[in-house]
Amino acid sequence: MKKISMETILGVLLFAGLGLLFTRGIQKTAGEAVTEEKQAAVTATVVIDAGHGGSDPGKIGINGAREKEVNLAIAEELKACLEEAGIQVVMTRSDAGGLYQESDENKKQADMRARCAIIDEAGAELTVSVHQNSYPAESVRGPQVFYHAQSSEGQKAAACLQEALNQELSITRPREIKANNTYYILKKTKTPVVIAECGFLSNYEEAEKLTTKDYQKQVAHALCSGILAYLEASGG
Ligand SMILES: [Zn+2]
């Protein structure tokens, strides 16, 4: 009786010990998975392309606002927002200048080629090209995101960004994402790219808002939310 009892106790202890080892093993694996997830989030790269610059002002607003300046201001706010979320950011430009040499005969072409080279080099999960729109009819307004028609990832990203812009900027008459096959930056790049037209500089109220730091921050925050939603949905 006493002997059986001892064997039982030893058996129980052995079983408990194995159980503890097994549980620790599981915990370690789960811990490793969390670490890997964090590392994946940290290593996600996004290219922010502030459209125009240098001798190319982009659209000129009804209020005189220059698109190249609005684009850069929003791009800088967006960079800060993404970096705070642990995303690695590559900027195509960080100052007022364009991406061409004074000696370049065709500055616009040189500028676009340089942007595409940076985008291809970065191999980013997503590139967001920041622009402002313009239209002859002053009443037309609101953000709109473009993607390449043959890019399903571009389309998914565009949908995430459009949704975030419409929501966070409380757009009363929301616009929809639009496919495009002619924009150079959409055609000539290897990774998913979207063009975010944040608003219309031809609409007085929107043009005025787009020149304020407060609204630029709101736009950047919305773009940031949309990008994070896309990265999360695509497992990055
Ligand atoms: Zn533009």
UniProtKB/TrEMBL annotation:
Gene Ontology, cellular component aspect: outer membrane-bounded periplasmic space
GO biological process: peptidoglycan catabolic process
Keyword 4Fe-4S annotated: no
SMART domains: Ami_3
InterPro entries recorded: MurNAc-LAA_cat, N-acetylmuramoyl_amidase_3
Keyword terms: Hydrolase
Origin superkingdom: Bacteria
Ligase among keywords: no
MurNAc-LAA domain sequence ranges: 116-228
Any GO molecular function: N-acetylmuramoyl-L-alanine amidase activity
Enzyme Commission number(s) of this protein: 3.5.1.28
Listed PANTHER family: N-ACETYLMURAMOYL-L-ALANINE AMIDASE, N-ACETYLMURAMOYL-L-ALANINE AMIDASE AMIC
Annotated protein name in UniProt: N-acetylmuramoyl-L-alanine amidase
Species annotation: Fusicatenibacter faecihominis
